[in-house]
Amino acid sequence: MKIMVAVKRVIDYAVKIRVKPDKTGVVTQNVKMSMNPFCEIALEEALRIRESGLASEVVAVSMGPSQCIDTLRTGLAMGADRGIHVEANYSLYPLSVAKILKKLVEIEKPRLLILGKQAIDDDCNQTGQMIAGLLNWPQGTFASKVVLDKEKQVATVDREVDDGIETVCLNLPAVITTDLRLNQPRYATLPNIMKAKSKPIKKFTPEELNVEIKSDLEIVEVTEPPKRKSGVIVSSVDELIDKLKHEANVI
Protein backbone atom coordinates (compact mmCIF):
# COMPACT_ATOMS: atom_id res chain seq x y z
CA MET A 1 0.00 0.00 0.00
CA LYS A 2 1.25 3.47 -0.87
CA ILE A 3 0.70 6.49 1.37
CA MET A 4 0.87 10.07 0.10
CA VAL A 5 1.54 12.90 2.55
CA ALA A 6 1.17 16.61 1.77
CA VAL A 7 3.73 18.86 3.49
CA LYS A 8 3.70 22.65 3.47
CA ARG A 9 6.52 25.18 3.79
CA VAL A 10 5.58 27.87 6.32
CA ILE A 11 7.23 30.48 8.49
CA ASP A 12 8.82 28.70 11.44
CA TYR A 13 6.54 28.61 14.48
CA ALA A 14 9.19 30.28 16.67
CA VAL A 15 9.55 33.35 14.42
CA LYS A 16 7.85 36.60 15.40
CA ILE A 17 5.58 37.51 12.50
CA ARG A 18 5.84 41.02 11.04
CA VAL A 19 3.21 42.62 8.81
CA LYS A 20 4.40 44.35 5.64
CA PRO A 21 4.20 48.17 5.70
CA ASP A 22 1.59 48.16 2.91
CA LYS A 23 -0.50 45.56 4.82
CA THR A 24 -0.70 43.17 1.85
CA GLY A 25 0.74 40.24 3.83
CA VAL A 26 3.52 39.26 6.21
CA VAL A 27 7.27 39.58 5.76
CA THR A 28 8.84 36.36 4.46
CA GLN A 29 12.15 37.65 3.10
CA ASN A 30 15.14 36.48 5.18
CA VAL A 31 12.74 34.72 7.55
CA LYS A 32 13.34 31.16 8.75
CA MET A 33 10.97 28.70 7.08
CA SER A 34 10.20 25.12 8.08
CA MET A 35 7.71 22.30 7.61
CA ASN A 36 4.25 22.99 8.98
CA PRO A 37 4.04 21.23 12.41
CA PHE A 38 0.77 19.48 11.56
CA CYS A 39 2.39 18.17 8.35
CA GLU A 40 5.27 16.77 10.44
CA ILE A 41 2.70 14.82 12.45
CA ALA A 42 1.05 13.56 9.25
CA LEU A 43 4.39 12.39 7.87
CA GLU A 44 5.35 10.74 11.16
CA GLU A 45 2.10 8.77 11.17
CA ALA A 46 2.69 7.60 7.60
CA LEU A 47 6.22 6.49 8.50
CA ARG A 48 4.97 4.54 11.53
CA ILE A 49 2.38 2.79 9.37
CA ARG A 50 5.08 1.82 6.88
CA GLU A 51 7.42 0.64 9.65
CA SER A 52 4.66 -1.57 11.05
CA GLY A 53 4.53 -3.38 7.68
CA LEU A 54 1.12 -2.02 6.64
CA ALA A 55 2.47 0.17 3.82
CA SER A 56 5.25 -0.23 1.29
CA GLU A 57 6.00 3.38 0.35
CA VAL A 58 5.58 6.92 1.66
CA VAL A 59 5.54 9.77 -0.87
CA ALA A 60 5.87 13.37 0.34
CA VAL A 61 4.30 16.14 -1.75
CA SER A 62 4.93 19.88 -1.49
CA MET A 63 3.65 22.78 -3.58
CA GLY A 64 5.08 26.25 -4.04
CA PRO A 65 8.35 27.96 -5.03
CA SER A 66 11.67 26.20 -5.56
CA GLN A 67 12.52 26.56 -1.85
CA CYS A 68 9.92 23.87 -1.13
CA ILE A 69 12.64 21.41 -2.14
CA ASP A 70 14.21 22.08 1.28
CA THR A 71 10.95 21.11 2.98
CA LEU A 72 10.80 17.93 0.93
CA ARG A 73 14.41 17.10 1.81
CA THR A 74 13.44 17.41 5.47
CA GLY A 75 10.61 14.95 4.87
CA LEU A 76 12.96 12.58 3.04
CA ALA A 77 15.44 12.84 5.91
CA MET A 78 12.66 11.89 8.33
CA GLY A 79 12.13 8.73 6.27
CA ALA A 80 9.88 9.37 3.27
CA ASP A 81 10.89 7.25 0.27
CA ARG A 82 10.59 9.94 -2.41
CA GLY A 83 9.19 13.38 -3.03
CA ILE A 84 7.04 15.28 -5.51
CA HIS A 85 7.37 19.03 -5.96
CA VAL A 86 4.68 20.99 -7.78
CA GLU A 87 6.41 24.28 -8.55
CA ALA A 88 4.27 27.40 -8.44
CA ASN A 89 5.63 30.89 -7.88
CA TYR A 90 2.28 32.32 -6.84
CA SER A 91 -0.14 31.88 -3.99
CA LEU A 92 -1.97 28.58 -3.81
CA TYR A 93 -5.21 28.54 -1.86
CA PRO A 94 -6.91 25.40 -0.43
CA LEU A 95 -9.12 24.61 -3.43
CA SER A 96 -6.20 24.89 -5.86
CA VAL A 97 -4.08 22.65 -3.62
CA ALA A 98 -6.91 20.11 -3.46
CA LYS A 99 -7.23 20.06 -7.26
CA ILE A 100 -3.49 19.50 -7.66
CA LEU A 101 -3.55 16.72 -5.06
CA LYS A 102 -6.43 15.08 -6.93
CA LYS A 103 -4.32 14.94 -10.10
CA LEU A 104 -1.35 13.51 -8.19
CA VAL A 105 -3.58 10.88 -6.59
CA GLU A 106 -4.74 9.84 -10.05
CA ILE A 107 -1.09 9.46 -11.09
CA GLU A 108 0.31 7.82 -7.94
CA LYS A 109 -2.80 5.88 -6.86
CA PRO A 110 -2.16 5.83 -3.10
CA ARG A 111 -4.56 4.03 -0.79
CA LEU A 112 -4.18 6.62 1.96
CA LEU A 113 -3.74 10.39 1.78
CA ILE A 114 -2.63 12.05 5.03
CA LEU A 115 -2.49 15.80 5.65
CA GLY A 116 -2.10 18.05 8.64
CA LYS A 117 -5.48 19.34 9.78
CA GLN A 118 -4.38 22.92 9.05
CA ALA A 119 -1.35 25.08 8.30
CA ILE A 120 -0.11 27.53 10.91
CA ASP A 121 0.23 30.38 8.40
CA ASP A 122 -3.40 30.65 7.27
CA ASP A 123 -5.24 28.25 9.64
CA CYS A 124 -7.66 27.46 6.81
CA ASN A 125 -8.40 23.83 7.80
CA GLN A 126 -10.00 23.20 4.40
CA THR A 127 -7.68 21.26 2.10
CA GLY A 128 -8.27 17.79 3.58
CA GLN A 129 -12.02 18.14 3.39
CA MET A 130 -11.88 19.56 -0.14
CA ILE A 131 -9.67 16.80 -1.53
CA ALA A 132 -11.91 14.16 0.08
CA GLY A 133 -14.88 15.75 -1.66
CA LEU A 134 -13.14 15.95 -5.03
CA LEU A 135 -12.02 12.31 -4.82
CA ASN A 136 -15.30 11.13 -3.26
CA TRP A 137 -13.24 9.37 -0.58
CA PRO A 138 -14.25 8.93 3.07
CA GLN A 139 -12.45 11.25 5.48
CA GLY A 140 -11.31 11.16 9.09
CA THR A 141 -10.42 14.67 10.23
CA PHE A 142 -8.66 15.83 13.45
CA ALA A 143 -7.25 12.33 13.99
CA SER A 144 -5.78 11.59 17.43
CA LYS A 145 -5.40 7.83 16.74
CA VAL A 146 -5.23 5.79 13.54
CA VAL A 147 -5.49 1.99 13.30
CA LEU A 148 -5.29 0.22 9.93
CA ASP A 149 -6.64 -3.22 9.06
CA LYS A 150 -4.81 -4.20 5.89
CA GLU A 151 -6.88 -7.34 5.28
CA LYS A 152 -10.23 -5.58 5.57
CA GLN A 153 -8.86 -2.40 3.93
CA VAL A 154 -10.34 -0.30 6.72
CA ALA A 155 -8.91 2.56 8.79
CA THR A 156 -10.31 3.23 12.26
CA VAL A 157 -9.81 6.84 13.29
CA ASP A 158 -10.35 8.45 16.70
CA ARG A 159 -11.06 12.10 16.00
CA GLU A 160 -11.21 15.00 18.42
CA VAL A 161 -14.57 16.76 18.55
CA ASP A 162 -16.09 19.32 20.92
CA ASP A 163 -17.70 16.64 23.11
CA GLY A 164 -14.65 14.36 23.32
CA ILE A 165 -13.52 11.55 21.00
CA GLU A 166 -15.51 10.24 18.03
CA THR A 167 -14.49 6.97 16.36
CA VAL A 168 -15.11 6.49 12.64
CA CYS A 169 -14.33 3.56 10.34
CA LEU A 170 -13.21 4.43 6.82
CA ASN A 171 -13.04 2.12 3.83
CA LEU A 172 -9.77 2.60 1.96
CA PRO A 173 -8.82 4.60 -0.02
CA ALA A 174 -9.39 7.45 2.43
CA VAL A 175 -8.23 10.89 3.53
CA ILE A 176 -7.00 11.52 7.08
CA THR A 177 -6.06 14.85 8.63
CA THR A 178 -3.93 14.84 11.77
CA ASP A 179 -4.33 16.63 15.09
CA LEU A 180 -1.62 17.55 17.60
CA ARG A 181 -2.05 14.58 19.92
CA LEU A 182 -1.67 11.88 17.27
CA ASN A 183 2.09 11.44 17.74
CA GLN A 184 5.44 13.09 18.39
CA PRO A 185 7.40 13.60 15.13
CA ARG A 186 10.94 12.26 15.00
CA TYR A 187 14.07 14.29 14.41
CA ALA A 188 16.05 13.67 11.24
CA THR A 189 19.42 12.09 12.06
CA LEU A 190 22.60 13.16 10.31
CA PRO A 191 22.96 9.85 8.36
CA ASN A 192 19.36 10.18 7.14
CA ILE A 193 19.94 13.81 6.17
CA MET A 194 22.85 12.64 4.00
CA LYS A 195 20.76 9.82 2.50
CA ALA A 196 17.95 12.26 1.70
CA LYS A 197 20.18 14.07 -0.79
CA SER A 198 20.12 11.03 -3.09
CA LYS A 199 16.40 10.27 -2.81
CA PRO A 200 14.39 11.20 -5.92
CA ILE A 201 12.16 14.26 -6.16
CA LYS A 202 9.89 14.43 -9.19
CA LYS A 203 8.84 17.87 -10.44
CA PHE A 204 5.58 19.03 -11.95
CA THR A 205 3.86 22.33 -12.64
CA PRO A 206 0.11 22.94 -12.35
CA GLU A 207 0.06 23.39 -16.14
CA GLU A 208 1.64 19.95 -16.68
CA LEU A 209 -1.01 18.47 -14.41
CA ASN A 210 -3.69 20.32 -16.41
CA VAL A 211 -4.90 22.19 -13.34
CA GLU A 212 -6.16 25.71 -13.87
CA ILE A 213 -5.10 27.94 -10.99
CA LYS A 214 -7.33 30.90 -10.28
CA SER A 215 -7.67 32.85 -7.09
CA ASP A 216 -10.95 32.30 -5.27
CA LEU A 217 -9.91 34.46 -2.32
CA GLU A 218 -8.98 38.12 -2.07
CA ILE A 219 -6.82 39.47 0.75
CA VAL A 220 -8.11 42.94 1.52
CA GLU A 221 -5.77 43.86 4.36
CA VAL A 222 -3.47 42.18 6.87
CA THR A 223 -3.13 43.78 10.30
CA GLU A 224 -1.56 42.82 13.59
CA PRO A 225 -3.89 41.87 16.45
CA PRO A 226 -4.49 44.69 18.94
CA LYS A 227 -2.04 44.82 21.81
CA ARG A 228 -3.36 43.65 25.15
CA LYS A 229 -3.62 46.16 27.95
CA SER A 230 -1.36 45.56 30.90
CA GLY A 231 -2.87 43.73 33.85
CA VAL A 232 -3.68 45.20 37.25
CA ILE A 233 -2.71 43.69 40.59
CA VAL A 234 -5.41 43.96 43.23
CA SER A 235 -4.86 43.74 46.96
CA SER A 236 -7.99 41.84 47.96
CA VAL A 237 -10.90 39.77 46.72
CA ASP A 238 -13.28 42.63 47.48
CA GLU A 239 -11.28 44.99 45.26
CA LEU A 240 -11.29 42.37 42.48
CA ILE A 241 -15.07 41.99 42.70
CA ASP A 242 -15.51 45.76 42.67
CA LYS A 243 -13.42 46.11 39.49
CA LEU A 244 -15.30 43.26 37.80
CA LYS A 245 -18.59 44.95 38.65
CA HIS A 246 -17.81 48.53 37.66
CA GLU A 247 -15.01 48.27 35.05
CA ALA A 248 -15.41 44.92 33.32
CA ASN A 249 -19.20 44.68 33.71
CA VAL A 250 -19.08 40.91 34.10
CA ILE A 251 -21.03 40.57 37.34
TrEMBL record:
Pfam families hit by this protein: ETF
Name the family the entry cites. Answer: Belongs to the ETF beta-subunit/FixA family.
Q: Indicate where this protein is primarily found.
A: mitochondrion
Q: What is this protein called?
A: Electron transfer flavoprotein subunit beta
- State any single GO MF term: electron transfer activity
- Could you read off the lineage of the organism from its UniProt record? Eukaryota, Viridiplantae, Streptophyta, Embryophyta, Tracheophyta
Q: Give the CC-aspect GO terms.
A: mitochondrial matrix
What this chain does, per the entry, is described as: The electron transfer flavoprotein serves as a specific electron acceptor for several dehydrogenases, including five acyl-CoA dehydrogenases, glutaryl-CoA and sarcosine dehydrogenase. It transfers the electrons to the main mitochondrial respiratory chain via ETF-ubiquinone oxidoreductase (ETF dehydrogenase).
Which compartment or compartments is the protein found in? Answer: Mitochondrion matrix
Q: Name one GO biological process term.
A: amino acid catabolic process
